[in-house]
Amino acid sequence: MDHVKCQQVANRSERKQPGCSTVFDDGKDVARRRARTRVQPKRDSTGRLTTCAFILSILAALAAIGLTSGSFDSGNSRSRDESGYESDPPVSDSETPSSSSGSPNTYSYEVVNTYPHDRHAFSQGLDFDGKTLFESTGKYGRSTVRRVNLETGKVEKQLQLDPRLFGEGLTLCNDKVIQLTWRHRLGYVYDAKTLKPLRTFRYDGEGWGLTYDGDHLIMSDGSDKLRFLDPISFAHVRTIRVKDGVRSVRDLNELEFVNGEVLANIWHSDRIAMISPETGKVTGWIDLSGLLSKPLGPESVLNGIAYEDGRLFVTGKNWPQLFEIELVKKSRK
Ligand SMILES: [Ca+2]
User: Burial level of 328, CB count in 10 A (0-12/13-18/19+)?
Assistant: First the structure.
């Protein structure tokens, strides 16, 4: 398999496009298609609790003097070793949002279909164009970008990254596939049909998850922040902080833009957050516990969300299956 040569692709220029509201080869508008889903997350309209005003002011003061999460330029303060392990503990169940009025909606799931998934794929990014899955896998020496047959799980085509690179988030953007690398601040742009490398780009901090909302790339770095990037120049546009009420939601990992909201795997958990891309507010939680019949290793966690044409897929690192699911809204008590 070909190794991606950074210097080779860096010298190539990407074909200019009118922006990410253009269409895929099948002629369907990306943003319009991604706005369809079976579940319509309900936005709540409550404001902040007045009793939390004091806490908010304290948090704001701490942020102002740099005692909260660092900036993107400084990178993610959490660290993983080369096998992908991270030193900080995962989000605990005690941080599950309350069911009080105004709290996020909660969802369980029903499995619609189960498909095979490569047990050797340390999944870091997943997307779907309506026919084919696109996946980024991690680990040094084993990182790839690949096209995968949905029905069989077989890899139709793949490129192996330079063994010094650790593959991370991936998204489709028009007829391109864009892939992040973890700490290397290096992104790749590929032709979606051939996986031919077209160009590279640079970004600050760590790269974790990546998705595309029809206008911008949205990128996570394992903190509570989501960055919005221009899909052509890759320039930083804006940043939001993700919160459930007044609590920051950290460990945002693989992403998917669905129905006007960003879905984010919470690293080392079975939960997916639904996030308003305008405010960063968590509007819903998806509980995917029990999806695997038996647990795998400690790092074989949920980390893969793909959505297209009303179909929602999830998988995880080294999971033997990929699941097509429908969300089931839980009734409030
Ligand atoms: Ca995704």
Answer: middle
* Model confidence pLDDT, tens digit, residues 116-144: 999 999 999 999 999 999 999 999 999 99
Distance 162 CA to ligand 1 centre (A): 22
Q: Where are the domains of the chain?
A: 6-12+103-329
**Residues 15-51: tens digit of each pLDDT:** 323 333 222 233 333 333 444 333 343 333 333 333 3
Alpha carbon of 256 to ligand 1 centroid (Å): 4
**pLDDT over 70 (residue 100):** no
Separation of 137 CA from ligand 1 center, angstroms? Answer: 12
**In DSSP terms, which residues pair with 67 in a beta bridge?**
none
CA of 40 from ligand 1 middle (Å) equals: 19
Residue 281 in tokens: 């507010």
Residues lying with their CB under 5 A of ligand 1, a single-atom ion: 126, 256, 305
Multiple choice CATH, 6-12+103-329, 1.10.340.30, 3.90.76.10, 2.60.40.2000, 2.120.10.30: 2.120.10.30
How many angstroms does the Cα of residue 118 sit away from the middle of ligand 1? 17
Alpha helices in the chain (DSSP H): 6-10, 30-34, 53-64
Predicted structure pTM score:
0.73
